[in-house]
TrEMBL record:
It comes from Flavobacterium fluviale. Belongs to the peptidase S33 family. GO terms for molecular function: peptidase activity. Keywords: Hydrolase, Signal. Gene3D superfamilies: alpha/beta hydrolase. The keyword Cytoplasm does not apply. The lineage of its organism: Bacteria, Pseudomonadati, Bacteroidota, Flavobacteriia, Flavobacteriales. This is Alpha/beta hydrolase.
Length: 304
């Protein structure tokens, strides 16, 4: 009776909290499960799906890709965009696919979701992979602005734009948006020297079905900052606790990812351990596209 009650509770949780979730799986469900957690808020998993999901599955994994509630293809006008809501939806995925534990492969803002989830539910996570993932938000924003001030030191118009952003409320959606917009305008997210493999991969994505479903909810960041108190955090103390609990943590980052300072990268490498960390050359923020083969090789070697 107790087991039946638990099953019905989990089933109810899925239908109540995850009925609007876009979820797609790749590979054999008998293989080790990996849940991909995309960036945002306002992101989606289309780039990962359109370029990398099946290839990672071909390495012998069961890949679960999804869009968080209210983001991308998981339309929900009642979404609150809080970490609590993200946890409920992750738990509904565990329930739906009967997972005892899974690897969390997290990108960008998804790293914050995955880290906080792992801290709350360590028994559910067999490994945490931070792939170009955020872990110290204010340091990232400060680094972006400081880098641009040096770059545009003789450009009064650019310095004025930077100054406007710098003087915004540090715990606001406008501040986050301003920092990342400036980073995008200055090529912080682009592969430094595009290779033939990268060019072909991105062209295939842009010509395929996933690019056509690259839906962005522009209200998501505003609602996140409105509803979530933990909106500008540093998770390194939490990562230390996760490591101490026995959950393996791995980090893989692009050497030319402009949103992270060398000091940030060094601190994370020291935290997870040099054998659990890789820095990819000629690589920026979307490392699973920029250096796909190396990305796949590292994930496979770590998890298998």
């Amino acid at each position: 009776m107790k087991s039946l009650f638990l099953f019905l509770s989990l089933l109810l949780s899925f239908f109540a909290n995850g009925q609007n979730l876009y979820i797609k799986t790749y590979g054999d469900k008998k293989n080790k499960p990996i849940i991909f957690i995309h960036g945002g808020p306002s992101g989606n998993a289309t780039l990962f799906e359109g370029t990398t999901a099946q290839k990672l599955a071909d390495e012998g994994f069961y890949i679960i890709a999804y869009d968080r509630r209210g983001e991308g293809r998981s339309a929900d006008p009642n979404a609150t965009f809080t970490y609590k809501e993200a946890f409920l939806d992750l738990n509904s995925i565990y329930s739906k696919y009967h997972l005892k534990s899974a690897v969390l492969l997290s990108h960008s803002f998804g790293g914050l979701v995955a880290t906080l989830y792992t801290h709350k539910y360590p028994q559910n996570v067999s490994a945490l992979i931070l792939a170009g993932a955020l872990f110290s938000q204010q340091e990232t924003y400060t680094h972006i602005l400081d880098t641009l001030k040096k770059k545009h030191s003789n450009d009064s118009q650019q310095l004025k734009k930077i100054n406007i952003v710098e003087n915004l409320d540090k715990n606001s959606a406008e501040y986050r948006k301003g920092c990342f917009e400036l980073a995008g305008e200055n090529g912080f997210f682009k592969m430094p020297n595009p290779t033939t493999a990268y060019t072909k991969l991105y062209a295939a994505y842009e010509g395929g079905k996933f690019y056509k479903s690259n839906i962005r909810n522009q209200n998501a960041p505003l609602l996140f900052y409105q509803n979530e108190k933990q909106n500008n955090i540093d998770t390194r103390s939490i990562l230390k606790k996760i490591k101490a609990s026995g959950v393996p943590i791995f980090g893989i980052y692009g050497k030319q990812d402009g949103i992270f300072s060398s000091a940030q990268i060094k601190s994370l490498k020291n935290l997870v351990g040099k054998n659990h960390f890789t820095l990819l050359g000629n690589c920026s923020h979307y490392l699973f596209v920029d250096q796909q083969n190396e990305f796949l090789s590292n994930v496979k070697n770590w998890i298998k």
